Automatic annotation (TrEMBL), chain A:
<protein>
    <recommendedName>
        <fullName>Oligopeptide transport system permease protein OppC</fullName>
    </recommendedName>
</protein>
<feature type="transmembrane region" description="Helical">
    <location>
        <begin position="111"/>
        <end position="133"/>
    </location>
</feature>
<comment type="similarity">
    <text>Belongs to the binding-protein-dependent transport system permease family. OppBC subfamily.</text>
</comment>
<keyword id="KW-1003">Cell membrane</keyword>
<feature type="transmembrane region" description="Helical">
    <location>
        <begin position="243"/>
        <end position="265"/>
    </location>
</feature>
<dbReference type="InterPro" id="IPR025966">
    <property type="entry name" value="OppC_N"/>
</dbReference>
<dbReference type="GO" id="GO:0015833">
    <property type="term" value="P:peptide transport"/>
</dbReference>
UniProtKB/TrEMBL annotation, chain B:
<feature type="transmembrane region" description="Helical">
    <location>
        <begin position="97"/>
        <end position="121"/>
    </location>
</feature>
<feature type="transmembrane region" description="Helical">
    <location>
        <begin position="189"/>
        <end position="207"/>
    </location>
</feature>
<dbReference type="Pfam" id="PF00528">
    <property type="entry name" value="BPD_transp_1"/>
</dbReference>
<keyword id="KW-1133">Transmembrane helix</keyword>
<comment type="similarity">
    <text>Belongs to the binding-protein-dependent transport system permease family.</text>
</comment>
<dbReference type="GO" id="GO:0055085">
    <property type="term" value="P:transmembrane transport"/>
</dbReference>
<dbReference type="GO" id="GO:0005886">
    <property type="term" value="C:plasma membrane"/>
</dbReference>
From TrEMBL, chain C:
<dbReference type="InterPro" id="IPR013563">
    <property type="entry name" value="Oligopep_ABC_C"/>
</dbReference>
<keyword id="KW-1003">Cell membrane</keyword>
<dbReference type="InterPro" id="IPR003439">
    <property type="entry name" value="ABC_transporter-like_ATP-bd"/>
</dbReference>
<dbReference type="InterPro" id="IPR003593">
    <property type="entry name" value="AAA+_ATPase"/>
</dbReference>
<feature type="domain" description="ABC transporter">
    <location>
        <begin position="350"/>
        <end position="598"/>
    </location>
</feature>
<dbReference type="InterPro" id="IPR027417">
    <property type="entry name" value="P-loop_NTPase"/>
</dbReference>
<keyword id="KW-0067">ATP-binding</keyword>
Length: 279, 325, 689
């Protein structure tokens, strides 16, 4: 019943409505689009190198005759999957670390928060870039793990400070006085009551992960060939952006639309889940 | 208070040391400078490669802890070691550090000040046209990663200059070495325009959202009502009481935002062909240049923690509740 | 001539919620008008509308004239000349009402400068004068302090100083003392009356506390569901109420001078402003309701000299001379079997022996270091016999919550002993501790926070059952819901679908799930409206008698305690000041603190409030990290002030412990010069009996 209220409020929000419709269309394009297009993403048309968009190759072709429509949609699929996985792992990690640090306090808190502080000293881009030479030739899933491992710290701090106040709530005290073990209290009373924050955060983490992937791939530190993602395509396209704009415009445009629609949904979710705040 | 800040500073120094050390070891284990010497034509003898790498403290046959020891001793005495091909890291860093600092400093200040101002305007004019305009633009900008923004700006300027037939706005490099004196100063300013815009636009959007939300949170609070009950105008109550109080949370974000700013600088420097620390990082990772990477990392860690320290100072200056404890 | 004339004021919030539906009143110079009502009755919204401080989106209609000038619909240029100049407002929560980043002096000076042409220095000086006027010690130093450095009482004084900065004609006080302790409340009300004398202003006093108004107000307006239901001179309202709601409200208040026995509850809860019943909004809860009441809402009509009543049966009430006790059914609570056994022969369910709980006082954000000790609980002893209710009373910071937590944790105390049902908490192993938890349960203060908002009520009540491995959870949940006066179907709903009183009943059901022997009640009714309070108090009384429970009842409201408790322990700064049976302590308090505490409680009885002499305490509670030497109360003690130098030495050097008073069985006080003083005379009806 609560989720119904939230959904109703979400759909009443104009921004969120735009965001949801755009996202649905983009996902449809990414997963249904390839079946409509005439070419497979691995196909190479040796008669058309770097040709402009036309009736045959809808979004033009690349340097070795790839059909940009098929390749771009393939890249978008990868970007979406990476975004979702990273957001899921990072938010879960943040929830666990933050709530344990906050609820247990004492040395558990100290150790975990020192770890968080340490990880926050260096931008995650820098660390992942340093590790990236190791990833060459490895599976893109490692890249997901790496991205997730470096994008949970700030959320975990927020989770921790909220746990500190939840810990003093009377229903949490009541559970402790009933003799319920502490880890059970965390998963039964604390984490569910942080769900608004976690849902919003997970949503925004999807867009952050998509941008992060693209940024790393821009310098070749991210997804490695033969895999493609929006990031690798933008990197390639930007080199010849002035001469062959279609190589750049389509992946870049899709990236922006994807991120924008997710951010709009995240913002709408914040309004819907947290009616008290004006955020 | 002073004691508290000193202690804070001490902790930051420890954090820098630990983070930089870990980063060095990470770089030393993932990168192999040996690759640059192997497979050359004509091939170089194994022993010669080893000797060269040993001289630069880059030999992967030496245990990583031993290499770290040599590196750390050097850093403590102000020597950051050798690049993969024997150059001095110190010299390279000396050339690049101010290039980056100039960019980062201007970008940070511009981002914070303009962002907070726009956020405040947006909150005061909630649901009016200006609020919506600021809101929509910040959403679009936040969906535009720096590398896209910079590339788009470069493309647009290229076409503009092309259309005009002369270079109105510079889009590559840091300055024109052929000019001198005041002309060179103007030229430097011109070269700054595009990188600064692409670097600060993101944080302007970020801070404007934060400041707007914080102010709206504060607007509903009792003390704004009290201020109006005293006989202050709504606008005065908002700027004098709400804006001032809502600056505090924005100042705490300052600490987190610097890392993002540095990441942004990597892209702007690369895209606009500035020879700064960010560009160096990308180049040295590609060149398996362990000591250069370590130097950039140390620089970043110091910058980030300095920003965090500044943010502490800023919060302490703004919030009497923190100051007294 | 009236300063303020309000006519037919209505306020509608977005979504068509009518928060105020036609309020009219006048305030004269030097007059105090009390507006009484429960939460949601529209009393605060009314005054915010007059000030023009409602959030945008609220639609206000009607008229509010200040000295004949219309306030509603004024533009901002005009408004700012009135606000803070002719009308000032004092808000409920003085912490959030001050801007945290400016000093108190600056904020008061700002109020001065808004309306008077004055230099910064002069305004700052004026601020110091004003702080001095409201009784803030060292005003020139304190003016530089920030709001968070002030105590609650000090902040409210500063708020009053700010409000009278420009000699207003009218002061609107919105629950000015609700957030404060009783002895501080007495101080602040005193300051408010001083302020009124200084300025000669009219006062609109908004409160839910019928005691506070009784002593201050000249006239009273009673609001219910957004409308005034009765209005008139204070004595008429209190002694001759003619509207069943007012009658019920007065009958339902527990009185510190009252007798024991069940309170008279008003059934049900106030209607939501979004779903008002047809006809009289009070009809669904009214025992005098007739069919006609549903037809149309009765208008507020003149009823004798200067009064107005909105009830179609008011004349009947007048003729028959009905009172609240006649109209509202008085519940019958079955007596307890256990009490027949003399106390000495009953088992002891809880025993505290010189229990100590100190906290380290930490400083620093990263490397915390200890800079002192908070002596939260510093050696207290008491015991509770089977079937008995012991009340632990005291103001905030006295250590009662710490005591309660220490008992609930079932961990070894830092010093002394805690013995629950014969088992020493220091000697429990893990399984014994868990077993004991079933016998020791707690009901919390805030019915909003005590229930996990994301769990259906059935799961909430079943949680302790499942934690202790009971199989028949759902049957037991149904049984428990009925026990506390709810329906078994309620198990599937979520906490936010219940009213405050119902939620507190759910909390009680959960506490009773494991059939405990001792129930700890942590301010169980202080968050509830008066009309609902009575029902919960009666339920607790009934459950105790039926199930043979013992209660440890922690409270700050001495009137509630009088009704529920058998014995009472008064705490001050981590120590027990006085302990004994309720009769002994209330009727013959021997410790100066207890005397001050009892005398500070306002009675809902205008005549006696006017003639009563208060024992006012000086200053604030000292910090528990730095308690005074010897007797902890001596710094504020009215008795200490009149002692000779030689007698004082003993108070300064020697810490008194609880000593039994001569010739009484169960009464002790921790005062070297204990002396019984009667501070509350028995109420009239008791005298008549």
């Amino acid at each position: 019943m609560r989720s119904k209220v939230v959904l109703r409020r979400l759909f009443r929000n104009k921004q969120a409505r735009y965001g949801i419709s755009a996202l649905v269309l983009l996902i449809l394009l990414a997963y249904v689009g390839p079946f409509i297009g005439p070419y497979d993403w691995t196909d190479k048309d040796f008669l058309a190198f770097m040709s402009a968009p036309g009736s045959d190759h809808w979004w033009g072709t690349g340097a070795i005759g790839q059909d940009m429509y098929a390749v771009t949609l393939r890249g978008m699929q990868k970007s979406i999957v990476i975004g979702l996985l990273v957001a899921l792992i990072a938010t879960g990690l943040a929830a666990i670390v933050g709530s344990f640090a906050g609820y247990f306090g004492g040395w558990v808190d100290k150790v975990l928060m020192w770890g968080v502080d340490l990880l926050l000293v260096l931008p995650s881009f820098l660390i992942i870039a340093i590790i990236s030479p190791r990833l060459k030739g490895g599976s893109w899933l490692w890249f997901v793990v790496l991205l997730a491992a470096f994008s949970w710290m700030i959320t975990s701090r927020v989770v921790r400070s909220m746990t500190l106040s939840l810990r003093e709530r009377e229903y949490v005290l009541a559970a402790a006085y009933m003799g319920i073990p502490r880890w059970k209290i965390i998963f039964r009373h604390i984490v569910p009551n942080l769900s608004s924050l976690l849902i919003i955060d997970a949503t925004l983490n999807v867009s952050l992960a998509i941008i992060g992937e693209a940024a790393l791939s821009f310098f070749g530190f991210g997804v490695q060939p033969p895999d493609v993602s929006l990031g690798t395509l933008i990197a390639e396209g930007s080199r010849n952006a002035t001469g062959y704009p279609w190589l750049f415009v389509f992946p870049a445009g899709l990236l922006v639309l994807l991120v924008l629609s997710i951010n709009l949904i995240g913002d709408g979710l914040r309004d819907a889940l947290d009616p008290g705040s004006n955020s | 208070m002073g004691k508290y800040l000193l202690r804070r500073l001490a902790i930051n120094v420890i954090l820098v040391a630990v983070a930089a050390s870990l980063a060095y070891m990470l770089a030393a284990t993932t990168m192999s400078p040996r690759a640059a010497y192997q497979g050359r034509q004509p091939p170089i003898a194994e022993s010669v490669i080893d000797a060269t790498l040993d001289a630069y403290n880059l030999n992967d046959k030496t245990p990583v802890l031993q290499r770290y020891g040599t590196w750390a001793k050097g850093v403590l005495t102000g020597d950051f070691g050798r690049t993969w091909n024997g150059g001095s890291v110190n010299q390279e860093m000396g050339r690049r550090i101010f290039v980056s600092l100039r960019l980062l400093l201007i970008g940070t200040i511009l981002g914070f000040v303009v962002g907070v101002a726009l956020g405040a305007v947006s909150a005061v004019k909630q649901y009016k046209l200006s609020d919506r305009l600021i809101g929509v633009s910040s959403f679009v900008i936040m969906a535009l990663p720096v590398f896209l923004l910079a590339t788009l700006l470069a493309m647009a300027t290229y076409s503009l200059n092309d259309g005009l037939g002369f270079t109105l706005i510079e889009y590559t490099g840091e300055y024109n070495p052929k000019l001198s004196g005041f002309d060179q100063f103007l030229n430097r300013l011109n070269h700054l325009i595009l990188p600064t815009i692409s670097l600060s636009l993101g944080s302007i959007a970020f801070y404007s959202r934060i400041q707007r939300n914080m102010m709206l949170d504060v607007l509903g609070q009792d003390f704004v009502r009290t201020a109006m009950a005293k006989g202050l105008r709504r606008r005065t109550a908002l700027t004098k009481h709400a804006l001032r109080t809502a600056l505090i949370p924005s100042a705490t974000y300052f600490a987190f935002a610097f890392g993002t700013m540095f990441t942004g600088a990597i892209f702007t420097e690369k895209i606009f062909a500035w020879h700064g620390m960010g560009a160096w990082l990308v180049d040295s990772i590609n060149a398996n240049d362990v000591n250069s990477v370590a130097a950039v990392t140390l620089f970043t860690a110091i910058c980030v923690l300095f920003a965090a320290f500044l943010s502490d100072l800023l919060v302490a200056a703004l919030d009497p509740r923190v100051r007294v404890s | 001539m009236s300063i303020l004339e309000v006519r037919d004021l209505t306020v509608t919030f977005p979504g068509g919620i009518e928060a105020v539906r036609g309020v009219s009143y006048d305030v004269d110079r030097g007059e105090v008008l009390g507006i009484v009502g429960e939460s949601g009755s529209g009393k605060s919204v009314t005054s915010l509308a007059v000030m023009g401080l409602l959030p945008p989106g609220a639609v206000v209609s009607g008229s509010a004239k200040l000295h004949g000038r219309e306030l509603l619909g004024m533009d901002e240029d005009e408004q700012i000349k009135v606000r803070g100049k002719s009308i000032s407002m004092i808000f409920q929560d003085p912490l959030s009402a001050f801007t945290p980043v400016y000093s108190i002096g600056d904020q008061i000076a700002e109020a001065v400068r808004v309306h008077q042409k004055m230099g910064k220095d002069k305004a700052a000086k004026r601020a110091v004068e004003l702080l001095d006027l409201v009784g803030i010690p060292n005003p020139d130093l304190r003016a530089k302090s920030f709001p968070h450095e002030f105590s609650g009482g000090m902040r409210q004084r500063a708020m009053i100083a700010m409000a009278i900065a420009n000699d207003p004609d009218l002061l609107i006080c919105d629950e000015p003392t609700t957030a404060l302790d009783v002895t501080i409340q007495a101080q602040v009300l005193e300051v408010l009356m001083t302020a009124q004398r200084e300025t000669g202003a009219g006062i609109v006093m908004i409160t839910h506390d019928l005691g506070v108004i009784a002593g201050m107000a000249d006239r009273v307006l009673v609001m219910y569901a957004g409308r005034p239901v009765e209005q008139g001179p204070v004595d008429d309202i209190y002694y001759r109420p003619r509207m069943p709601y007012t009658m019920g409200l007065l009958a339902s208040i527990p009185r510190v001078d009252g007798e024991e026995g069940p309170l008279v509850p008003i059934e049900g809860s106030p209607p939501s402003p979004a779903a008002l019943p047809p006809g009289c909004p009070f009809a669904p809860r009214c025992p005098m309701k007739v069919d006609m009441c549903d037809d149309e809402e009765p208008p507020l009509t003149a009823f004798g000299a200067g009064r107005h009543v909105a009830c179609i049966r008011s004349h009947e009430i007048e003729h028959k001379g009905l009172t609240g006790a006649d109209v509202f059914p008085v519940p019958v609570i079955p007596p307890s079997d256990v009490v027949r056994v003399p106390r000495a022969e009953r088992a002891t369910v809880l025993e505290l022996d010189d229990m100590i709980r100190h906290y380290p006082l930490m400083k620093g954000a990263v490397f915390k270091r200890r800079v002192g000790t908070v002596f939260a609980v510093d050696g207290i002893s008491f015991d509770i016999a089977e079937g008995e209710t012991l009340a632990l009373v005291g103001e905030s910071g006295c250590g009662k919550t710490t005591t309660l937590q220490q008992i609930m944790q079932l961990q070894p105390p830092q010093g002394g002993r805690v013995v629950v049902l014969g088992k020493d908490s220091a000697k429990l192993d893990k399984s014994e501790r868990k077993g004991l938890r079933g016998d020791l349960q707690i009901v919390f203060q805030d019915p909003m926070a005590a229930l996990d908002p994301r769990m259906p009520v059935g799961d909430i009540i079943a949680e302790p059952l499942r934690a202790h491995g009971r199989k028949d959870a759902s049957a037991r949940v149904a049984e428990l819901l009925e026990l506390v006066g709810l329906a078994p179907e309620h198990a599937e709903r979520y906490p936010n679908q219940f009213s405050g009183g119902q939620r507190q009943r759910i909390g009680i059901a959960r506490a009773l799930a494991l059939e405990p022997k001792l129930l700890v009640l942590d301010e169980p009714v202080s968050a509830l409206d008066v009309s609902i309070q009575a029902g919960v108090i009666n339920l607790l009384e009934e459950l105790k008698n039926r199930l043979g429970l013992s209660y440890l009842f922690v409270a700050h409201d001495l009137a509630v305690v009088r009704h529920l408790a058998d014995r009472v322990a008064v705490m001050y700064l981590g120590r027990i000041a006085e302990i004994g049976t309720v009769e002994n302590v209330y009727d013959h308090p021997a410790h100066p603190y207890t005397q001050a505490l009892l005398s500070a409680i306002p009675l809902p009885d205008p005549e006696r409030e006017r003639t009563r002499k208060r024992i006012l305490l000086e200053g604030d509670l000292p910090s528990p990290a730095d308690p005074p030497s010897g007797c902890r109360f001596r710094t504020r003690c009215p008795k200490f002030a009149v002692l000779s130098e030689a007698e004082r030495r003993r108070c300064v050097d020697e810490e008194p412990s609880v000593a039994r008073l001569a010739n009484v069985v169960d009464h002790g006080a921790a005062c070297h010069y204990a002396e019984e003083v009667e501070v509350i005379t028995a109420s009239d009806n008791q005298e008549e009996e």
